[in-house]
Amino acid sequence: MRNEFSLIEYYFQQHQRTRDDVLIGIGDDGAVTRVQPQHDLVTVTDTMVAGVHFDDTTPARAIGHKAVAVNLSDLAAMGAEPCWISLALTLPEADEQWLQEFSAGLHEICQYYGCSLIGGDTTRGPLTVTITAQGQVPEGQALTRKGAMPGDWLYVSGPLGDAGLALDITQQRYPEAGPHLQKLIERLHYPSPRVALGQSLRGVANACIDVSDGLLADLGHILTSSQVGAEIELDKLPLSLAMTETLSQQQAYAKALTAGDDYELCFTVAEHHRGKLETLTAHLKNKPVCIGRIKKSQQATVSFKLEGEDYPLTLEQPGFNHFLDDAGATS
Amino acid sequence: MRNEFSLIEYYFQQHQRTRDDVLIGIGDDGAVTRVQPQHDLVTVTDTMVAGVHFDDTTPARAIGHKAVAVNLSDLAAMGAEPCWISLALTLPEADEQWLQEFSAGLHEICQYYGCSLIGGDTTRGPLTVTITAQGQVPEGQALTRKGAMPGDWLYVSGPLGDAGLALDITQQRYPEAGPHLQKLIERLHYPSPRVALGQSLRGVANACIDVSDGLLADLGHILTSSQVGAEIELDKLPLSLAMTETLSQQQAYAKALTAGDDYELCFTVAEHHRGKLETLTAHLKNKPVCIGRIKKSQQATVSFKLEGEDYPLTLEQPGFNHFLDDAGATS
């Protein structure tokens, strides 16, 4: 029935460079690791299913990369240092080339971020990849969704909507985006979790989440957990050149607000910590962008401004969906 | 794409009685927990796939129970105290009754063993359940497969082969087992991980594994890792009444040696620790049974005795498979 012994050991143990805090890795009933003194353990889990999260055209290397990346993105949103990865891989058959490429993608990103694959399970069945990632954070310093305060500045870590636009293009919705295709597909298939930024935000951000389901949806979790509202300045939303050259302004805003899979961080910072944030992120290639502010509100509502003027667009009004329909973003 | 927010929160958060060491549970990007000082973290992962590990006739409650049980069994084999569970649940549709029963099965066993569900991911796709369980063990005291020494006594924690026999019966191979059916099906669907025993074995057992793939297969991992061989006294193999009343003696031995899914522990104990083992397990309802001894050997071979006489049956000889075929156990 179970065969942890064969596939995992063969494809995943060989390239392994193991962290010093892994006492027992792949090959026993469980892995044994050591959390640093005065640190909390952070655990995240994400599943990717064939036909839902990727399709036949997705390279196996990208699936291996992304399955790890989405988990490291969750760890980053908690302010945690990524440490250990467990892989549950369900496969219809042991396709050697696929496994070689998948494990290469998985190992590249693990190596880049310094985390070790410590175990897992391989089973026969429809292609499904579940990764559980563990990280650590100094005691009591984990970032959460619930600390946003009225007056906090609202930030995102980088351009939004690119992954969603890439998906649209592969589905032939915007064939005119040809010149940017390669770059956008990279953003969709090989997202970069904001691991360093997440750790820098400890003690600086009041609330943090990663944008996996779209800015409005994920910001909505911060607002609901923190019992506040927000105001977004649409013209401050960071957009890539590929985005602005492919879509109209309205379409681009809608895409940036609603498309998922970018794995940028969205976080809030109190006025008195803005200087600290700027110092901490001065060395980063992609600096966080301030896109608005947290407001007092009971209903977790978001309001919008465009060029300094109120822009009558709220999550509740029927026109919002309409707006999204126009932008082709409700898929 | 991802919707950790809906199903998991609704069905799994409500009954939750959370351990004190869970600082942040379900509902943020990750869970935050605290490992006790001077303890190591033990992590295990197991996947159950519909059509492979269970079928349409398996009650949802049993799937929820067993998905946790197989993981706790791995933790027990490492000598770890079970603490936290993450659930990755892939479902074709959100069937309310199924979810209710599945989550009831999952919660019952979590509650019994004192572990908390701390997070997970729900996705749409072919029914697959992956659980990652985390436990803790005093520093450096995790049990492994590799410490068995020549002269060690070989133990199993309880009757072997019942789950395999149950599977045969449901597949109509032994219709005469009718009177024992209910009990056997319970063993197959609701295995009891040997959590207390596993923790008692710290500092007592030299090597330990859980019997998920069959005694010979799993003992084989101990022998390979420890570079030793073993001798099994067939007439000491613990067999249930259901087993001895349903199968011939030969069939019963074959089943006990090769059938998986019993989730008993198999472990080795040095001569000078036998007394300690007896004291430690005196209070257990099911006491471990000594079934043989570890031998010096380069080849991880197993030899057998029956009523004190050598019984010419080794893993390598062709007759072994034949023997199993006769017993109907090669499925």
At a glance:
Two copies of one chain form a homodimer. With 331 residues, chain A is α+β, with helices and mostly antiparallel strands.
Feature tags:
homodimer, 331 residues, alpha+beta, 60s Ribosomal Protein L30, Chain: A, Phosphoribosyl-aminoimidazole Synthetase, Chain A, domain 2, 2 domains, seven-stranded mixed beta sheet, four-stranded mixed beta sheet, 11 helices, 34% helix, globular, disordered N terminus, disordered C terminus, magnesium ion binding (chains A, B), PurM-like_N (chains A, B)
Per-chain topology:
The structure is a homodimer of 331-residue chains.
Chain A: H1 7-12, E1 22-24, E2 31-33, E3 39-49, H2 60-77, E4 81-91, H3 96-113, E5 116-124, E6 128-138, E7 153-156, H4 162-170, H5 181-189, H6 195-200, E8 205-211, H7 215-226, E9 229-233, H8 241-246, H9 249-258, E10 264-269, H10 274-281, E11 289-295, E12 302-306, E13 309-311, H11 318-326
Parallel strand pairs in A: 4-5, 9-12
Antiparallel strand pairs in A: 1-2, 3-6, 4-6, 7-10, 7-11, 8-10, 9-11, 12-13
Binding site for Mg(2+) 1 (chains A, B): 45-46, 121
InterPro entries (chains A, B): PurM-like_C_dom (IPR010918), PurM-like_C_sf (IPR036676), PurM-like_N (IPR016188), PurM-like_N_sf (IPR036921), ThiL-like (IPR006283)
Domain PurM-like C-terminal (chains A, B): 150-300
